[in-house]
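Hi U.,

Before I forget, here's the chain from the pilot set. I'm dumping it here mostly so it's searchable later in email.
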Amino acid sequence: VLTVFVVYDLPGRDCHALASNGELLANDGDLARYKSEYIDVIEGHLKTYKSQPVVLIVEPDSLANLVTNLESTPACADSEKYYLDGHAYLIQKFGILPHVAMYLDIGHAFWLGWDDNREKAGKVYSKVISSGAPGKVRGFTDNVANYTPWEDPTLSRGPETEWNPCPDEKRYLEAMHKDFKSAGIESVYFVCDTSRNGKKVDRKHPGEWCNQTGVGVGARPQASPVSGMDYLDAFYWIKPLGESDGTSDESAARYDGYCGHETAMKPAPEAGQWFQKHFEQGIKNANPPL
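Structure:
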């Protein structure tokens, strides 16, 4: 049995959006809390169960925001120090445990897929991994809570994709593997979240991320799922279908405009709360069928 956990509580979490802002703010005091009340506690439990193999999916969206949103989003600039320090700390703590494999989040194809973003990502992730020495990172996770199909032969580099050379997750990971190796990262393996990408959703722009209509469960969790991609460790359902991406209530404190877009299912509850209608549609549209 392999146990999988998502580590997700950095100070200033979700700095470019509003729906999943965390309990901790981007300040020194909350960074200290993150270390002592969160990472240290997890470390204690991991050390208690040394015979149990564990996978940690680390801080979705955080480092990808440092690649693309530092200049455009003041909250991300304010959070940069804490994202970097938090990652260094957790890699040092968890990365020395032989029964633990960590995967850092790399967003998805329509976030970092463009050539300049991938090049910058190689530098950012290489720096982060080095800062956690002697801790080791197994690899990276993509498409967490997102809807980008594993393969989409209808798309290519052109106006429809804003000239993105990686318009699906397969091509994205193929490119990232090459670029991360070129950046000097030694261990480059991937876990792809297929919990919501079985059917091409109704979104009008591939950057749409909130409770997309037309959703369908994707490929079943499986180790080494694709022949010829020995660096793809697994497909896995990381964010469970049925957990809302964010509320559609415009008066709510955590309302994000993306959750009010035309292709976002409504009415939707707060992020993380159960969204039965979205779950039912995902089951109905499952590919392969359930």
